[in-house]
Amino acid sequence: MHKLRQMNPLEHLTALPSPVSISIWWNGGSILGLLLGLQIVTGLFLSMHYTADLVNTFSSVIHIVRDTPGGWLFRNFHANGASLFFVFIYLHMARGLYYQSYITQPRTWMIGVTIFIVSMATAFLGYVLPWGQMSFWGATVITNLLSAIPYLGPSIVEWVWGGFSVGQSTLNRFFSLHFILPFLIGGLSALHVILLHEKGSTSPIGDLNHVSKTPFHPYYSWKDLVGFLVLAIVIVLLGFFYPTVLGDPENFIPANPMVTPVHIQPEWYFLFAYAILRSIPSKLGGVVALAMSVAIFYFLPLATNKLATPAAFTPPYQVTFWFFIVFFILLTWLGACPIEEPYMSLAVPLTFIYFLWFILFISVPALWKKLIS
């Protein structure tokens, strides 16, 4: 460990002891780094032609796509890159849950959860910027949730808006924050990697012993290149052939405060939390549940038995994990459904199970160890 810390940054990467048994699922972090770089670069070029002005904002996006050389490509890559970023961040977190990274690397895990939350905020701010119908009404609905905070709620909402409704001031500050936050994500990602390299990656059996490890380069660096190639193929297919498949048709209509969309919903990667919000009749209760649906990941390293059996040797743990994946997908689907029966009734038990699952997830490995010992 002492020798590892004395290396220069390049050697720190190439000579990093990596488990010989890790699979393709460990590629997620490097792919997320590549996607973050893509988002920053494409966002920088888009910001040169974007106009944060209520009158011209929607037209400026059209101008980027139609008139700016290569603008359509940068716009397509940026919009679809956000969706791909969340695809891989969910895969990365799922891998960490399955192989119990929150036990072996608690500080790294908690920084990762922070990156996830900041990424959600950045994506929400970016979704508002095109100033289409869903952008405007999504911003209105989500920011209005802050009014549920006792006593201070209405004042906080007005402060966020910069007025008495979503308007010019809101757009200005959302654009500024959306531009700045990716650099914060980059800094947190660097800290995430530094903390990870203190102990090295865990293996599927939860082993941190450096005896059974191999240098990162060339074996895993070439594996990462394969992942980058697959990602490039996917993003080129989306950018050139299916640029709008992950978007909402309502957002191709200019924002109109006088016409409410039939069904207001966020982007697909927020739908699980949106379904949890809608399942609780109380506004304050829904907001608390929405916040806890993400913040609960912080508590896994604090509440977990560190002597628990690794997932590879705990069949009930594996079954519990895949049940969570099913619940997550169902909540995402329900978040996209209209606010009517039977969807509203289905979301209530799934919300309860979502939070109950974390208690079971923490308890199962320890119980299994007692059972087989």
Descriptive report:
This protein is an all-alpha fold and 373 residues long. It has 2 domains: 18-204 and 212-258, Up-down Bundle (Cytochrome Bc1 Complex, Chain C), CATH 1.20.810.10; 265-372, plastocyanin oxidoreductase (Helix Hairpins, Orthogonal Bundle), CATH 1.10.287.980. It has 16 helices and 2 strands. The protein has helices spanning 2-5, 9-14, 28-47, 57-66, 71-98, 101-104, 106-128, 133-144, 153-161, 168-199, 219-240, 271-278, 283-295, 300-303, 315-336, 343-372, and strands spanning 17-19, 213-215. The chain has a two-stranded antiparallel sheet. It is globular. The model has no long low-confidence stretch (mean pLDDT 86).
CATH superfamily name of the largest domain?
Answer: Cytochrome Bc1 Complex, Chain C
Which class of secondary structure composition applies to the elements? mainly alpha
Distance between the termini: 33 Å
CATH architecture of the largest domain: Up-down Bundle
Number of folding domains?
2
What's the total count of β strands?
2
| Mean of pLDDT | 86
What fold name stands as the CATH topology of the largest domain?
Cytochrome Bc1 Complex, Chain C
CATH top level of the largest domain? Mainly Alpha
Order the strands across the largest sheet as they lie in space: 1-2
Order of helices and strands: HHEHHHHHHHHEHHHHHH
Shape: globular
Unreliable spans: none
Q: Roughly what fraction of the amino acids lie in strands?
A: under 5%
Tally of DSSP helical segments: 16
Q: Largest beta sheet, briefly? A: 2 strands, antiparallel
Task: Please bin the fraction of helical residues.
Answer: 55-70%
